[in-house]
Amino acid sequence: MREHYFQEHRGAPPLPEVPELPSEYGDTKIVLLVRDPEWVYAYWEINDAVRAEYNLPRHGHSRRMVIRLYNITGRNWPTENAHYFFDIDISPYANNWYIKVPEPDQQWVAELGTFDERGEYLPIVQSNIVRTPRDRMSDETDADWMVVEETWQKIYGMSGALRPLDSSWAGSEELLRHLQKQVYPALRGEGGFAGSGALGSANVAVQPKPGAAKPSAFWLRTETELILYGATEPDASVTVNGEAVVLRSDGSFTLRFALPDGEHQLEVRALSRDGNHQRDIAIHVKKQTK
């Protein structure tokens, strides 16, 4: 007598039903997104309470509705007024819209609004702030990047400079590979080093002494940098050449800059938390390597 065993084959269990996302969440909000240098995208919703307040029933109405787009580039919005704004008429049934902006590389805020029977504009809700990118290549071909002091110390420590020089510790493997590939050849004048990054540099030609044999691999390179430090109120906002600076808890800050040959301007601005007080300091630095 033989026994036969048959393996039972079962199909995959049915997937659970995934509920559909709701078309609205009961909020009143508008969100602005960047598509490219010339276009932004807005989507919004208006809940029933706000619709009743502004007389905007869902089944239709005759009120004019618009998206008002504000150009707020460089402004302390909303304390300072926008440079200008323009209106885009929208359908009363729409909940999203593509908007072509007149200028690239600008900051924008969208506002959903309507007009009453007397033609007066009534704002409903404002969006987040966005900035469209440039539509061209950067004008700077060899930018000098500033490095926060804490970041510099962290990188410096990873390099092994803060550890004893022994064979038991080799530092970050990734950092070592970077140093071997970028920094060491650059210090020897190889690879077309252009001076970008945290340090500015200068090559100095070396002439052999009379009667001495010309050294085959003798070289000299100097590195320079600029350290900017200061302090203000801990809750203030500080920028250097338009770039935001993170303050320490006591309001102090430290930055490191590359310092290549030439003239350099540092515009330091501090703005109080309430926006009522502002202080500006302009620093002019000139470096010349001979």
UniProtKB/TrEMBL annotation:
Region (Disordered): 1-20
Biased composition (Basic and acidic residues): 1-11
Pfam families assigned to the protein according to its UniProt record, in alphabetical order: DUF4912
Superkingdom assignment: Bacteria
InterPro entries given in the database record: DUF4912, Ig-like_fold
Protein name: DUF4912 domain-containing protein
Species for this entry: Sumerlaea chitinivorans
